[in-house]
Amino acid sequence: PVEVFDLVIFGGTGDLARRKILPGLYRRFLAGQMTADSRIIGAARGELTDDAFRTMVAEAIDEFVPKDRRDSVMIADFLSRLHYVAIDAKGEGGWDALKGLMRDGVVRAFYFSVAPALFGDIALRLKKHGVADEAARIVVEKPFGRDLATAKALNATLAQHFLETQIYRIDHYLGKETVQNLMAVRFANILFEPLWKSEYVDHVQITVAETVSVDGRGAYYDKSGAMRDMVQNHMMQLLCLIAMEPPYHFDPDAVRDEKLKVIRALDPVPQNDIVRGQYLAGGGQGGYLEHCENPASSTESYIALKVHVSNWRWKGTPFYLRTGKRLRARASEIAITFREPPHSIFDDAKGWRENVLVIRLQPDEGMNLMVMIKEPGPGGMRLMQVPLDMSFAGVLGEEAEDIPDAYERLIMDVIRGNQTLFMRGDEVEAAWAWTDPIIEGWNATGTKPQGYDAGSSGPEDALMLMHRDGRRWREIR
Ligand code: BG6
């Protein structure tokens, strides 16, 4: 179990709280990680009794926790630890009541599950009304700014009231089991690390493909697009974990220092190395332009780009990144393609293909190492590629179901005071510093995204991005 805590969720009745944060906390309670005297306090604008808040949370658990994990006795016990305070983020109403609920000697954590425009107001009032103590932790959600200037302003605002060691910037990809596994694979095995450089790695593909559309959240999404919504944060984190140097220790600043160096080493990306797409109507659903309710929108729901990490280790090994909505399948993976052996001893090595290490992030988490063997049979030295295939579910069996989801893990890390899986302020700013000119580039040329069929693997031009380098994307399945 973690230490006893009082966790306040601002935006406690909002979508993220209902979908992820509260069901996640229930699962941690069920797993025995949340101690009995810890409390969760929902805070939002509306007037609500504790009981009404508990009913809302009970419904959320019903909706978002699988049936076999719903135990009525445990749920009732969990609900009894919930409270609610109506609060005015921009005024003084409710803050003293919230202060009255806080206990001394327990961890105080404040989750800002609200629009970033309110971060400053809440931070200010937490301090002004003495709700946050010296050791308090605040958790902030993305989007963390929409460019370098706004991210800097946000960092500066938070820094007026809290130390960097108190600020937990969430990137939920870092909470995913398989994403953390990237570090274990790299740094707990001797096998891969010696080959982990441009001398042996031909290229890396990072894919986060989704089948969902942006229907229902088009207003947010249209101001953002795939570059801001996925690349600046989630994909960037994946890239960092793959490309970074070994940190001297698995310790928050050691890890984050190494990630920061990767971001700083990224070359600017020429527009020619970027393909943007917008999904078209199909499969009985509307297209992007209908979903975002802006027929003239030039926001991308798909992006592919070729990225160079300009340092000693990676010079000459491109990283190809792609992510999009309404694609053929929900499939996220990282594929590391190795180079050819320096010399083939087989005169007629038919069937040879490169070694590829595929790390599947979701669904069906696992690892796959593609190796060459001799095709069985008398027909001479013909080669074939076979997978050394490891699926987490296969190895862990039922235990795999108890792996905490990203939010659960990260909230528990906040209570433990472990910032390793959270983004530091300078990291976020460096990521925006790289992202801004890319976005400014297409804004300046006014290029429109290319339409792509719903259910496909993205725009045609994305294929060309790799074809012209004599490579191809792995299939999205
Ligand atoms: C969010 C994005 O941060 O991540 C969404 O805003 C995206 O657009 C989501 O769908 C993907 O997360 P996951 O965990 O489903 O891969």
Automatic annotation (TrEMBL):
Record InterPro entries: G6P_DH, G6P_DH_AS, G6P_DH_C, G6P_DH_NAD-bd, NAD(P)-bd_dom_sf
SUPFAM superfamilies linked to this entry: Glyceraldehyde-3-phosphate dehydrogenase-like, C-terminal domain, NAD(P)-binding Rossmann-fold domains
Residues involved in substrate binding: H172, K176, E210, D229, K325
Superkingdom in the source lineage: Bacteria
Domain Glucose-6-phosphate dehydrogenase C-terminal: 183-474
Positions bound to NADP(+): G11, G12, T13, G14, D15, L16, A17, R18, R45, K142
EC number: 1.1.1.49
Keywords: Carbohydrate metabolism, Glucose metabolism, NADP, Oxidoreductase
Pathway linked to the protein: Carbohydrate degradation; pentose phosphate pathway; D-ribulose 5-phosphate from D-glucose 6-phosphate (oxidative stage): step 1/3
Domain Glucose-6-phosphate dehydrogenase NAD-binding: from-to ranges: 8-181
Xref: Gene3D superfamilies: Dihydrodipicolinate Reductase, domain 2 (3.30.360.10), NAD(P)-binding Rossmann-like Domain (3.40.50.720)
Annotated active site: H234
The keyword Membrane is annotated on this UniProt entry: no
NCBIfam families the UniProt entry points to: zwf
PANTHER family reported for this sequence: GLUCOSE-6-PHOSPHATE 1-DEHYDROGENASE (PTHR23429:SF0), GLUCOSE-6-PHOSPHATE 1-DEHYDROGENASE G6PD (PTHR23429)
Name of protein: Glucose-6-phosphate 1-dehydrogenase
Organism field: Pseudotabrizicola sediminis
Name of the coding gene: zwf
